[in-house]
Amino acid sequence: MDTSSAQAIERSAIRKVSFRLVPFVALMFFINFLDRTAISFAGPNGLTKDLGLTAAQFGFAAGVFFIGYILLEIPSNLALHKFGARRWMARIMVTWGIVALLFTWVRSVEGLYWLRFLLGVAEAGFFPGAILFLSLWVPAKHRSHILGLFYLAQPLTIVIGAPVAALLIGANGAFGLEGWRIMFFGVAVPAVIVGIVAWFYLADKPSDAKWLTAEEQKWLTTELAKEDSAKTDAHGRHAGKALMDPRVWTFALIYFGLVYGLYALAFFLPTIIGGFEAQFGSKFNVFQKGLITAIPYLPAAFALFFWSRHATKHGVQNWHVGIPAAIGAISIPCALYMHSPAATVAVVAVTACSIFAALPNFWALPARFLTGAGAAAGIALINTLGNVAGFAAPYITGAVKDATGSYQAPMFVVGGFMALSAGLVMTIAAARSKPAAATTAFAYQPTPRAK
Predict the structure, then answer these.
(1) Does the predicted model carry a pTM greater than 0.85?
(2) Which helix (H) or strand (E) holds 277?
(3) In terms of residue numbers, what domain contains 132?
(4) Which of 186, 259, 322, 411 could form an S-S bond across to 168 if both were Cys, CB 3.0 to 4.6 Å?
(5) What is the dihedral of CA 190, 191, 197, 202, to 10 degrees?
(6) 122-135 pLDDT, tens per residue?
C-alpha cells in the first residue's frame, strides 16, 4: 500500500472513531459528572436547609461518594478489561442511575451519606474505563485529540447542566416534591436510558466495529499492536508491576492536585455564588444563579479544546499540564478577594480554564508506558489515588470554612495542591532531560510522532 493510501485510511479511521464513539462516550461522561455533582446544585437550593447540614456535613456528603468509588475502582476497571467495555460500562451506568433516583426521597443526613457512598460504589470504574476504552481505539499520536474531545463533556456538563438543574429546581412543588428532589430525579433517569443503549451501541475493539471498513479495522489493529509491542516494560503482562512503578504513584500525586481543584470548584462554586447577596448585596433568582455557575465553564471548554489541539499538533509535553496547573494555583485563592460578582466569576473562569486545559493532556502521559492489564491497573490506580482528592477537597473545604467563617482559607489550600501538581510534573520533565541511569523513576519513552 502506498503512503497516500495509508494516510487516507488513517484519516478516515480516526474521523469515524471521532464521530461515532467519542460523542457517545462523552455523553455518558456528561451524565456521569452531572449525577455526581448534582448535590452541588441541590445544596444551596433547599437540601442544606431541609436536612439541616453544616458546611462540613455538606462537604462530607459530597466527598463520601469517593470512598465507595475508590474501594471498587481497580477491581471494576480490571473487570472491564476482562469482560469488555460494552457490557461493563453499560452495567455501571444503569446501576448508578438506579441509585441516583433514590436521592429523590432522601429524608435524613445519614440517608444522604449512605446514598452518596452507594453512588460511588455504583460509578466505580466508569471514568478510568472510559479513558482505557478510548485508548484502545486510537494510536498515541491521536490520543490527546480524542481525549480532549471526550473531556469537553466535563465543562459542558456545568454549562448545560447548571441551567437545566436550575429549571428543574424551579419546578418546586410539582408532584408534591421540593425542587431539589425533582432535580435529582430529572438527572438520574438519563443514566438508565443511555446505559441500556450503550449495551447495543458500543463495540469493544476495532475488529468488532461493523461501521469501519476492513482496511480501517486492519490499520487500527496493526498500529495499536505495534505500540503495545514497542512498550519495553512488562506492565502489559503483569498488572502488579504497574502498581509498584514509582511513575504511576508520581502521576497519581499530580492527578490528586488537579482533582482537588476540580472538585473544590465543582461542589462549592454554586454555594459561593449563593453568598453573593450577603457579600455584595446582589440578588439573583435560582435560574440566574444557575447561569452564573455555568459562566466559568464556557471559556474552560474553549481552553480545553484549543490547548489539547495545540498539544496534539506539537506533541504532548509536560508543560501542557504544568503551566495550566501553576496558573490555577495562583488564580483560585485570588477569586475571593475580588470586589464584585463579575470580577469574582472572571477569576474563577481563569481557574476553570486552567484545570480543564491540564486534565485531558495529563492522561496522555501515563498511557505512554502502560499497556494491557497493566494499563487497566495503572490507570485505575492513578485515578483511584487521585480521586482521594474528591473526598478530601469538599470535606476539607467545608470544615475549614466552618472553622474560619469564610472560603478564603480553603481556597489557599486548593491553590497549594494545584501548585504541588505543577511542581511534580515539571520535576518529571527535568528528570527526563538527564541521563537515563540517573532518572529511572521518572523516565518513560514517548511514542514517536508520525513525520
Answers:
(1) no
(2) helix 276-280
(3) 8-438
(4) 186
(5) 130
(6) 998 888 788 878 88
